[in-house]
Amino acid sequence: MGSGRMLKFAICEVLQFAGLCLPLFIVMQRFAAIVAKVKTSARPPGDGGTAYWLIVASSIAYVTSAALLVWVPLKSLVFMKKKFLVGRKKWRPVALVYVILSTLPCFAFLIASSEVQINNNMKHDTFTELPVSLVLFSLICIDVVERIRHCRLTGQANEINRDAEIPSTVLTHVEQVTPMTQISPAVPGPAVPGQTVPNPAQPGPNRLNDRNQNGTGARPESNGTVLGVPGTNGRPFTISGLSPPPANPTAYGLSPYTHTGPLRFLCASDARADVFVDSFMFWMDTVEMVRVAGHPLVYYSGWVFPIYIFSYVSCLRVVVMPHSPLLSSMGVALQDLPFFFVRAGLIAFFGFVTPILYLLKNLLICLAFVYFNFMTKLRVFNTERVFF
């Protein structure tokens, strides 16, 4: 058991460190090649080899310094479970440091490569697949490793892990709930010596509180059951007493479908596999935006600046935990709203270099967020009483 954990720990750390180093090395090497070509083709020609190796050596020095001074100390503090880093479990410090140390320099050198070629009337390299397939794939790997490293990689997912924010598909604890019956009016019986019999005609403070809370004398219990509601036959109701809570088996981590029959293998599902799907879907909009920057018409223009800048800003969403309520507002503010204006400008200047589907996606998400979170609270849109 111990050797398996150490092996998983080593694999996770190697993958994360490779995701930190490889994009930087490759992007800076390609940038060094562009600078060397510019030096060679200049008038008078310069020493392109010296410029090339100087940039390569600088990239090695940067990665080494960042790893020794920031990455390794941060990892040590995280594994020591320092409270200021992992105490509240609302953000991911490793993802934040990766976005600052790796993604930011890569996007900066991609912009610098475009400017160097534009200023020297060159069209040598547009980095078509590099930012999409390498930089963002490394960012996705960091996200996946951070979410799945605390889970078992063998056997079935039979435990809930809050650190990884992965829901369990197995019911781990069920308590039997005894159905409550409606309380009938008590019939006065013989008085017991030493016992005070309450008079129904004179309601005490508890009865008054119950009547004030429910209006009909119904008393809510701690489990959500309302007693004394006519016609309920003791069925559990919500606090409002309007409708019974739906029987939702997914609230306990169970599937509402029965996996039976010869094709039950088609219903196979595992939360650990869903992590990969969620991580890739989380980055699809950013991937498409960065892909547009590799188009020759766009790359050799000033539009490369807003594309890479807003794409990097959207990457900051990875700092928040996967199921945090902040992701909704951050997605609109850091991604959909700026991406909508950038895509509208790209389509206006260059035509349909980006699919209009993503433009509609950004627009509809922004409108839906504003409407359902703010406008529905206004009096003119509050039609709850009409349908009540």
Automatic annotation (TrEMBL):
Species the sequence originates in: Oryzias javanicus (Javanese ricefish)
Protein name, UniProt field: Transmembrane protein 236
KW Transmembrane helix (keyword) present: yes
InterPro entries hit by this protein: Uncharacterised_FAM23-like_TM
Spans traversing the lipid bilayer: 7-31, 51-74, 95-114, 126-145, 297-320, 340-372
Domain of life assignment: Eukaryota
Region (Disordered): 188-228
Keywords on record: Membrane, Transmembrane, Transmembrane helix
Entry keyword annotation includes Amino-acid biosynthesis: no
